[in-house]
Amino acid sequence: MTATISAIPQGHDIKPIFARHETFHPRYGWFKKGYDKAKEDEKVFSREDAPVVLGVGKNMVSAIRYWSLGFKILDENKDKAKKSSFKPSDFGSRLLDEHGWDPYLENPASLWLLHWSLFKPPCYAPAWHFAFNEFNQVAFTAEDLFLSLKEYRNRVFPSAKISDSSLNKDMNIRRRR
């Protein structure tokens, strides 16, 4: 028997954002790289030469931006023309600055801190929020998870246009070799 939660718990702010990671999981060094480059230039992620500046492919630029926002390493600011700039968050500075708690994420406790930060409001990773906080199955198939995630999307974000393929991308993100 599965319990269903009818609404997002009060005080939670979960954004209807799916599949913006370009199918890349967060990679070692991306948080520090995104933090350092945004500290140098708040418009780094919208620059034409962002792949060169960050030393990664174009899709990886989007993934670094997504994960850095999701884990609250960076804050996004939009101007009147809705153009985004990104600056280090207080949390990002405390963790990753040269004299921060753990600039190169060498302490395993930092990974737990990042995990916590991913889910604190506002949450930009609803599929992960659902999988870790609401999906209570002990044994399940990928289809069980997918169907439950679809039900969650329909219940929590009824007016958002979120495709099944976006849900599938979030569900099937995995480490590439």
Indicate the topology.
Layout: H1 30-40, H2 50-54, H3 58-70, E1 74-78, E2 84-88, H4 90-96, H5 108-119, H6 126-133, H7 142-156, H8 164-171
Antiparallel strand pairs: 1-2
Q: How many strands, what sense, and barrel or not for the largest sheet?
A: 2 strands, antiparallel
Q: Classify the secondary structure makeup into a structural class.
A: mainly alpha
Strand percentage lies at 5-15%
Order of helices and strands: HHHEEHHHHH
Question: Largest sheet, order of strands side by side?
Answer: 1-2
Number of domains: 1
Q: Distance between the terminal alpha carbons, to the nearest Å? A: 38 Å
Average residue-wise pLDDT: 84
Uncertain ranges: 1-11
Our count of helices gives 8
**Computed CA radius of gyration, to the nearest angstrom:** 17 Å
Q: Please tell me what the overall shape is.
A: globular
The total of beta strands comes to: 2
Give the fraction of residues assigned to helices.
40-55%
Brief descriptors of the model:
mainly alpha; two-stranded antiparallel ribbon
Description:
The protein is mainly alpha-helical and 177 residues long. It has one domain (30-171). It has eight helices and two strands. It has helices at 30-40, 50-54, 58-70, 90-96, 108-119, 126-133, 142-156, 164-171; strands spanning 74-78, 84-88. A two-stranded antiparallel ribbon has the order 1-2. Helix 1 crosses helix 3 (58-70) and helix 7 crosses helix 8. Mean pLDDT is 84; it is low at 1-11.
Compact summary:
With 177 residues, this protein is mainly alpha-helical. It has one domain (30-171).
